[in-house]
Amino acid sequence: MAIHHLPVMRVAAILALTAASASVFAQSTEYRRGYADGFVAGKNAALEEQGRHWPRVHVEEAEYGARGMTCDALRAVRNEVERNDGNTRAGNHLCGDPARGQPKHLRIVYRCGDSEAMRVVVRENEVVRLTCRQ
Hints:
Layout: H1 2-53, E1 57-66, E2 69-72, H2 74-83, E3 87-89, E4 105-112, E5 118-123, E6 127-129
Antiparallel strand pairs: 1-2, 1-4, 3-6, 4-5
C-alpha cells in the first residue's frame, strides 16, 4: 500500500510548489506594476512642476563663425543645451571651423515658452547658460 501513495504524494508536492510559485509571481508582477506606475507618476509630477515655473528653452537659431563665414550650429547647440542643463560652449566642435585662424563667436536665438525671442552672443571657447528662470 505504501507504494501506491508515493505517486499521490509527488503530485501533491508538485501542486503545492506550483501554487506557491504562482503566488510569488503574482506578487512580483504586482510589485513591478506598482513601481512602474510610481515612476511614471513621479516623472509626470516633475515635468508638470518644471513646466509651471520654468518653461523649457527652445533654441530657434544657432550660428557659429566670423565675418560672414559661418556654419549652422543649431542641431549641436540644441543637443548640448538638452544634455548639459542649458549650457553650451562656443567652439569648432559645433559645426567645424568656418573661419580658420580668425576669432569666432556663437550667436543663439532662443525662446522660453511663448516669450519674446532672446539673443545671446558668446566668443569662441566661452560657455553660456540658456535659462528661462527669472
